[in-house]
Design goal:
The chain has about 50 residues and is largely without helices or strands. The chain has one domain. The protein is about 0% helix and about 0% strand. It has no helix or strand. The two termini are about 20 Å apart. The mean pLDDT is about 85.
C-alpha cells in the first residue's frame, strides 16, 4: 500500500497479469512508462478482468 509520504516505484515484469486499484479517499496519480513504443500491428497487451 502506497500513499502520500510513502511513494513507491513498482516494476511489473512482462507477461505478468496485473491491476492497480485506488483504495484511498483521494485521487490517485499514476505515472506509467514503457521501454518501447506500442506496435498496433503486433500488440503485446492482453485484457483480462481481474478486479471487480
Amino acid at each position: 500500500i502506497m500513499g502520500e509520504g510513502a511513494l513507491k516505484t513498482v516494476k511489473i515484469t512482462p507477461g505478468i497479469i496485473h491491476a492497480i486499484k485506488n483504495i484511498g479517499n483521494t485521487n490517485m496519480v499514476l505515472i506509467v512508462y514503457a521501454n518501447e513504443a506500442f506496435n498496433s500491428e503486433d500488440p503485446d497487451t492482453f485484457y483480462e478482468k481481474i478486479l471487480e
